[in-house]
Amino acid sequence: MTESLSLPPVPEPPKGERLKDKVVLLTGAAQGIGEAIVATFASQQAKLIISDIQAEKVEKVAAHWREQGADVVAIKTDVSHQQDLHAMARLAIDLHGRIDVLVNCAGVNVFRDPLEMSEEDWRRCFAIDLDGAWYGCKAVLPQMIEQGIGSIINIASTHSSHIIPGCFPYPVAKHGLLGLTRALGIEYAAKGIRVNAIAPGYIETQLNVDYWNGFADPHAERQRALDLHPPRRIGQPMEVAMTAVFLASDEAPFINASCITIDGGRSVMYHD
Fold first, then answer.
1. Quick one: which H or E segment has residue 26?
2. What is the DSSP secondary-structure string of 197-208?
3. Is residue 58, in this structure, part of any structural domain at all?
4. Is 170 a catalytic residue?
5. Using one digit for the tens of pLDDT, what is the confidence trace for 61-100?
6. Is the separation of the CB atoms in 140 and 89 below 8 Å?
7. Is residue 213 assigned to a domain?
8. Helix, coil or strand: residue 60
9. 64: exposed, middle or buried (C-beta count within 10 Å: 0-12, 13-18, 19+)?
10. Is residue 153 included in any domain, yes or no?
11. Residues 135-189 pLDDT 10s
């Protein structure tokens, strides 16, 4: 029997002051890319309010970084309920008096046959992947407008700009997320607010490890994924997180209504 796969050790994020004292809201923080963003932002001295529908897991993430001396508070949210996002924003204002950054990372994969997909699956995909991001933006924008400055980062996907068979309706929602990013970025640019997206490709998260372990030979399936990419590897959550640090920092003041793709160049070859 072929041995199952597990996630590789997570490297320590670089320490610094690139986000010193910035008040950051982050959804989808309990695992994967979201958890990596917590690690990098905490290591860059941000003040974090993190959330996830998995209350115990997100509190465990927060507790770990508090033990390291970081300022991290966890709150349970269901991003499909806009009142939860407004509660998260109010918590940030009550604690710190401002909101500098929002990272909409909560998301869900929904891959179905278009004609066999249930109405529930369609609604769930859009409620989390698109509505959830809009609700987060809607919750923080009044405070950012009042401040005259703010950065919103939406975690999109290479599915936001490319279509791969067998993935419906996920790319429909992610195309919408990219449209939301661009529209809000233009709408509020003159008020000092930047809205950008990050489009990760194949990233080595627990979700993908579990997927590979569903095959008779997980190692061969993982290698097949690696071989699809020009660098012959796939991305790591920390690589996505460090891009989010850049967009959240004062180093990217003229980047707005844009999307940074992180896929090792794979999407350039989607015609192959």
1. strand 23-26
2. EEEE-SB--HHH
3. yes
4. yes
5. 999 999 999 999 999 999 999 999 999 999 999 999 999 9
6. yes
7. no
8. helix
9. middle
10. yes
11. 999 999 999 999 999 999 999 999 999 988 999 999 999 999 999 999 999 999 9
* Domain encompassing residue 85: 23-200+235-261
- Residue 198 in contact with residue 181, Cβ under 8 Å? no
Give residue 184's pLDDT.
98
User: Structure tokens of 133?
Assistant: 């991001």
Cα 181 from Cα 168, distance rounded (Å)? 21
CA distance 104 to 124: 16
**Is residue 220 domain-resident?**
no
Mean pLDDT of the chain: 95
Positive or negative, the Cα torsion across 201, 207, 211, 217? positive
Distance CA 153, CA 196 (A): 5
Q: What is the pLDDT of residue 272?
A: 47
Q: What amino acid occupies position 253? A: P
Q: Looking at residue 270, what is its pLDDT?
A: 67
- Looking at residue 53, its amino acid is I
State the CATH number of the domain containing residue 125.
3.40.50.720
Instruction: Decide: pTM greater than 0.90.
Output: yes
Enumerate the H helices of 113-235 as residue ranges.
119-126, 132-147, 170-188, 206-212, 218-227
CA dihedral 78, 42, 73, 174 (to 10 degrees): -10
Under a CB-based contact definition with an 8 Å cutoff, are residues 61 and 35 in contact?
yes
∠ CA 147-186-136 to the nearest 5 degrees? 60
Which residue among 170, 188, 211, 270 is the active-site one? 170
Domain count, the chain: 1
